[in-house]
Amino acid sequence: LGRFCIETTVELAPYVHYMSSEYFVEPDRFLPERWLRDGSALNIHPYLLTPFGHGPRMCAGRRFAEQELYVLLSKMLKNFRLEYSGDLDMKFQVLMVPDRPTSFTFKDRL
Ligand code: HEM
After folding, report:
1. Which of 2, 5, 47, 96 is such that its CA lies 20 to 30 A from the CA of 81?
2. Closest to 19 measured CA to CA, from 10, 32, 29, 11
3. Residue-by-residue pLDDT tens, the chain, 110 positions
4. How far apart are the C-alpha atoms of 104 and 76, rounded to whole Å?
5. Atom 28 in ligand 1: which residue has the minimum CA distance?
6. φ and ψ at 107, to 5 degrees?
7. pTM above 0.90, yes or no
8. For residue 77, which of 104, 43, 41, 44 has the smallest C-alpha distance?
9. Considering Cα of 11, then 21, then 48, then 88, what sign does the dihedral take?
10. Are 106 and 78 in contact (CB under 8 A)?
11. Cβ(15) – ligand 1 distance below 6 Å
């Protein structure tokens, strides 16, 4: 670590990379298709997105957490239309979180 002493805490701030046009095309736009794995996605370096860490100490629950998320999201979107009205921004609290209380409406899908 160069000139840092051994007790130095080093934190990565992935948000800096996520919002950088050096790594992402139009980083401030909501473009979920940028993550498609069918070959159409933009060329994103595989180590730019490591929410579960990497290497021997990476998250032991990664696959479990991903499965839970897939099941939850698919059931939610299958059964409900989600609506949100109002302004929303983000603030930094170790993670990026909504800057105010959120209130979503779940409408039954027909
Ligand atoms: C979206 C959900 C989750 C995220 C984003 C997440 C993220 C992380 C991250 C960043 C680490 C540190 C990795 C490192 O030091 O390089 C970690 C460690 C760990 N996570 Fe998760 N995690 C999630 C869910 C879970 C779940 C559901 C479990 C258990 C069922 C779990 C169990 C663990 C364990 C045991 C470690 C410590 C691994 C070690 O130090 O050897 N995590 N997680």
Report:
1. 96
2. 29
3. 567 778 888 777 888 888 899 888 888 998 888 888 776 666 788 888 888 988 999 999 999 999 999 999 999 999 999 998 888 888 988 788 999 988 889 999 97
4. 13
5. 61
6. -105, 130
7. no
8. 104
9. positive
10. no
11. no
